[in-house]
Amino acid sequence: MQIATHHEAKHARELRRYFEYSQSGVEVLQDGLEEISFGEYLVAEGVVDRFQLFRALQMQDRLPGVRLGECLAALGYAPIAKVEQLSIAFARLHTVMV
To answer: Residue 61: enclosing H or E segment and its boundaries?
Structure first.
């Protein structure tokens, strides 16, 4: 059994509270396809963890017009070049309109 540190427990509470009230998020469609945001794509690619994404999204909320990658870089979570590279790959993903 793994014991969570104080910071991990605090992060988990903040994430639950944020997504509990969020009207948008990752949603699984009836046919099994998954709708994924760019931020979640960065988490899936291992560039940032979910808490870092959460902090960058909070920063983005306070600074309208600033891109997510800029927030991640400003917070020191990811190099802007890596985020831009993955942004291009994300844009090339196959999409299905339903």
So the answer is: helix 50-62
pLDDT in tens, 7-63: 677 777 776 665 555 454 444 334 455 678 889 999 989 999 999 999 999 999 999
**Closest CA relative to residue 67, chosen from 39, 36, 25, 35:** 39
Decide if 53 contacts 42 (C-beta within 8 A): yes
> What is the residue type of 85?
Q
How far does CA 72 lie from the centroid of its chain?
10
φ, ψ of residue 52 in degrees (nearest 5): -65, -40
The sign of the dihedral angle between the CA atoms of 73, 22, 62, 51 is negative
pTM surpassing 0.85? no
